[in-house]
Amino acid sequence: MNREVGESVIRAWRTNNRVTMYLIEQLPPVVWAADVPGVPRRTVRNIAAHLHNCRCRWIKALGRSHGIEPPALVDLRRVSSRELVRALARSSQGIEAIIQLGIASGGQAPRATWQNFPPDLQHFLTYFVAHEAHHRGQLILIARQLGHRLPRAVSDGVWQWNRLSRERR
């Protein structure tokens, strides 16, 4: 994989991360701790925190043997949205480090003992973006179900990848 293609994968990941962080930053506090309708013991906070914790587990599985240490998990029951945004920045760096390993290995991400996606960086990126998009959609829908329809600037904002790709954190 040439460096230019690899760098485009990193830029795409950074934009995805910024979209996820943007949504978490915009969720109203009343929604943050709310129970998910029809799902016992699950809250909006749990779903949002799952994104970081899932990244950390993949970083451990794919990168630890290559010297990439995963960030600490967050507490699914106690993490604040502000704390989670900071944690997402750390786990995003870990994902970027794995992408860098893949670039150095000709476009192949390291393999885990178990993984359900091909190891090329394009599939790697697509897998993680799809996972996060799935949960972003859940969070928006749950907010609506709870009677807290997010402002249009937020629900439309998660689709403003051009603008968000230019933002620096």
Could you explain how this protein is built, in words?
The structure is a single chain. The protein has one domain: Four Helix Bundle (Hemerythrin (Met), subunit A). It has seven helices and no strands. α1 runs parallel beside α5, α3 runs parallel beside α4 and α3 packs antiparallel against α5. Helices cover about 65% and strands about 0% of the residues. The chain has about 170 residues and is mostly helical. It starts with a helix and ends with a helix. The chain is globular.
Give the gist of this structure:
Helices cover 63% and strands 0% of the residues.
Record keyword descriptors for this entry:
single chain, 169 residues, mainly alpha, Four Helix Bundle (Hemerythrin (Met), subunit A), 7 helices
**Reported CATH architecture:** Up-down Bundle
Task: Kindly state the number of beta strands.
Answer: 0
**Structural class, please?**
mainly alpha
Beta-strand percentage? under 5%
The coarse overall form would be globular
Identify the CATH class.
Answer: Mainly Alpha
Mean pLDDT: 92
